[in-house]
Amino acid sequence: MMLFKKIISLKIIIFFLAGITLVSCKSNFALLTIENSRPAPEDLPADIQSITLLNRSMSTQFQNYQEDSLQLYFYRKGFQLSKIVLDSLASDTTIRALAELLYESGRYDVVVPVERNLKRKAQKTGSIGILDSVVRLLPDELSYEQLPDTLNPYIITKLCNDFNTDALMVLERFSNKVMVDYSKEKSGVNEYHYASIDLKYNAFFRIYKPGKKTLIKEIELTDTIYWENSDYTQMRLFSRLPSIKQTLINAGIKVALEVDEKLSPTWSSEKRGYFLFNRKNDLGQQLMNENKYDEAEKYWTEMAQSKNKNTRSKAEFNLALISELNGDLDGALEWGLKSFYSYYRYQTEAYLKKLKTRKETIQITK
């Protein structure tokens, strides 16, 4: 019985000591959340920090269709047809949405001029049937489906200078093909209604930069988005579907999202930590909470001169974090290795692995 009591007492002591250790570790290590960026799949050269967005996709074939009139046209066709619809608002929505997305990424400054539509010029004339009318092109106009020649280098330089940006991004071609279908079936005394909208979009962008090689990148997007629904009443069925006008605008937004996905970095939240030197009123923690990273770096640099290996290692670990926050991964790895060799800790080893993974990811995407 005495032996059993001693074993229980020993377990309690071990558990108590472990609890003290856990609390001590936790109180000497502060956590924070940082936002890390992953480079874009088709990131532009680093010297392109600002972009002017222009639109060269529209000709006299485009018009800003009224939502009700456009919807009525499709209804009168029995909602069973396939048509090219060139809507100027949808095209312009692509430019405006893309500008917001690129700017919000934090990677680019973006300028969208008030006069942002460039003329589509061609050698030949022609006409094209849009809906039920025939729109005749102007003598020097290029049809919507044709791709214009690249911009003249002089124009590129002038526009970049006028708007004080590093590059031009031009929507060179944009079109939507709307395919709708409607059917109904009888089931006893009830009618069952079904309708679908398929919208195939095509967009082509060029990115220009002043210099000997003006054309930096071309991006072409072609895809189909669709909506479908069914109901027992026709009115309720169509109330659940977007209008044709709205699908065109949605296509413009979808194009903008796809381009942004190619050109803008993505951000992810990750946990990081740093060591405290005082359980109460730690100066480093106060500075970090106030986002005074430069002052925290100065404070920890002084601590990194300590002859005490334990203290020095903690300061070096913290300086690795500061380097990462400043976007200097090489510096972070250097400080992390110093910390590792000054005094081994599991946190340092785990942090070095994270830094190495981040650097490898960035190198792969370049």
Please give a handful of descriptors for the protein shown.
366 residues, alpha+beta, Double Stranded RNA Binding Domain, Serine Threonine Protein Phosphatase 5, Tetratricopeptide repeat, 2 domains, six-stranded mixed beta sheet, two-stranded antiparallel ribbon, 11 helices, elongated
Task: Provide a brief overview of the structure.
The chain has 366 residues and is of the alpha+beta class. Helix content is 43%, strand content 27%. Strands 2, 3, 4, 7, 8 and 9 form a 6-stranded mixed beta sheet that branches. Strands 1-10 form a two-stranded antiparallel ribbon.
Structural description of this entry:
There is one protein chain. Strands 2, 3, 4, 7, 8 and 9 form a six-stranded mixed sheet that branches. The model is unreliable at 1-26 and 123-130 (pLDDT under 50). The protein is elongated and about 85 Å long. It has helices spanning 2-27, 67-76, 88-104, 153-162, 234-239, 244-263, 283-289, 293-303, 309-325, 329-342, 346-365, and strands at 29-38, 50-55, 81-84, 109-111, 127-130, 133-136, 167-187, 190-208, 215-231, 266-275. It contains eleven helices and ten strands. The protein has two domains: 50-266, Double Stranded RNA Binding Domain; 274-365, Serine Threonine Protein Phosphatase 5, Tetratricopeptide repeat, CATH 1.25.40.10. With 366 residues, it is α+β, with helices and mostly antiparallel strands. A hairpin with a 2-residue loop joins strand 7 (167-187) and strand 8 (190-208).
